[in-house]
From TrEMBL:
Compositionally biased intervals (Acidic residues): 243-262
Species of origin: Gardnerella vaginalis
Protein name in UniProt: ABC transporter
InterPro entries: Surface-anchored_actinobac
NCBIfam families the record matches: choice_anch_M (NF038134), P_ac_wall_RPT (TIGR03769)
Region of interest (Disordered), ranges: 235-267
Lineage: Bacteria, Bacillati, Actinomycetota, Actinomycetes, Bifidobacteriales
Length: 323
């Protein structure tokens, strides 16, 4: 019922957030977590979510109110990067982890795990706008994050043997990306979370509609846990923390030495844990911070900018930041 009430018409206005409503758990199937739409009432772009099978296959391609969604990342997403991985991007991620352990989404799909397959889609914006002109480039920006202690999120792509950073909360990772294609674009990327806990990603989409530059902001909530969310085993998130200990230090964890097998479902050199693999989370403290080393200007962050289609419009991201 929570997912049914979270549905929206693709050209509807974005409702105000309501903390009292029941939340819809998005835990399986394809979902374009970041999706842009066109509000035909206000004639403005809206940033939201286009979901598929996480509710049921009868509702593929449905727009959902992102304020009513929790994106679940569970035990079947737990992977272990090899310490011998040579790619510099994977090495950067590895350095932030405990012995290479991440909660991982594959660019090419969920495989046989039954987990969520998150991507992005800008096409509904152009379809909804009809004859209204919309610039072929939508800039998607990660403007802020709430995360567990030492928690980071990384989004990156791969073409052939080459990885490319897309968005990430860590220092030296891009904070915005240009998504360019006439009529909109649909794509997927790798995701890695390096700690269990609650992540709130503050995202912003910017483009030109008609002669006006428009932007839309949205907060996306991810619950990263050791539970098997593919069978509906959701953690109790009402407390101050879960899967964690009480100090704010990085502890040494014992990994499962008997699980050395390489995953055949992923093109990155990873190891998949068994269901009993447990990582302490250090989640008692949630930090709301700008990026390490960021220089604040006009309440904005001076971040790097990476273009998926060759455009590189670097510069100040003007926005509201909770620090």
């Amino acid at each position: 019922k929570a997912c049914a009430t979270a549905r929206l018409d693709k050209t509807a206005s974005q409702p105000a957030a309501d903390s009292k409503v029941a939340m819809c758990h998005a835990y399986k199937g394809h979902a374009d977590v970041f999706a842009t739409f066109f509000d035909t009432t206000s004639r403005r772009m809206v940033l939201g979510t286009l979901g598929d099978a996480f509710e049921s296959e009868d509702h593929n391609g449905t727009r959902y109110d992102t304020n009513r969604l929790i994106f679940e990342v569970g035990s079947k997403n737990i992977m272990q990067f090899s310490k011998d991985e040579n790619d510099p991007i994977i090495k950067e991620i590895y350095a932030t982890t405990r012995e290479g352990v991440v909660w991982f989404f594959d660019q090419s799909g969920a495989g046989n795990t039954g987990a969520l397959w998150p991507g992005l889609d800008t096409r509904p914006l152009y379809k909804g706008a009809g004859s209204t002109s919309v610039n072929p480039t939508v800039k998607l920006s990660l403007t802020g994050i709430e995360a567990p202690h030492n928690g980071e999120v990384f989004m990156y792509t791969r073409s052939g043997d080459d990885y490319e950073k897309m968005l990430g909360s860590a220092e030296n990772w891009p904070k915005d990306v240009d998504v360019t294609e006439t009529g909109g674009k649909h794509l997927h990327m790798y995701w890695s979370f390096n700690r269990p806990g609650v992540y709130k990603l503050k995202m912003k989409a910017t483009t030109t509609v008609g002669d006006e530059e428009q932007s839309s902001e949205q907060i996306y909530t991810f619950h990263v846990t050791n539970h098997d969310v593919t069978v509906g085993d959701f953690a109790d998130y009402d407390g101050a923390s879960f899967d964690g200990d009480e100090d704010g230090e990085d502890d040494e964890e014992d990994s499962d030495d008997n699980d050395d097998s390489q995953s055949e479902d992923h093109s990155i050199n990873v190891q998949q844990s068994n269901g009993s693999f447990f990582i302490n989370g250090n989640n008692n403290t949630v930090y709301v911070t700008p990026w390490p080393g960021a220089k604040m200007q006009q309440q904005g962050l001076l971040g790097s900018n990476k273009g998926l289609a060759g455009n590189n419009n670097g510069g100040l991201i003007n926005g509201e930041h909770n620090a």
